[in-house]
Design brief:
Elements lengths: L13 H16 L4 H6 L6 H6 L17 H4 L7
């Protein structure tokens, strides 16, 4: 999708790129990935999190991520 965007609308900073990736990925799968990114320490802007806040939150429950659920309640934008 980035390639199809007019150059003026393409994300330019690393923050804009992270935000766009999280927003587009969240909308593609129909799940809010904001808390997942926050749990992993990936900086996402408040406006990006707000844009997907109405989607159901997604957080994996594999052995590698079991400790993250305790921090999920602290992550902004969780449902």
């Amino acid at each position: 999708e980035y390639e199809a965007m007019p150059e003026a609308q393409q994300p330019k900073t690393d923050q804009e790129k992270r935000d766009q990736w999280m927003i587009r990925f969240s909308k593609a799968i129909g799940r809010n990935l904001g808390p997942f990114y926050t749990a992993w320490g990936i900086p996402i802007s408040t406006s990006a999190k707000d844009s997907v806040k109405d989607l159901p939150t997604w957080m994996p429950t594999t052995e590698q991520t079991l400790g993250i659920e305790t921090n999920l309640a602290k992550a902004p934008g969780t449902k």
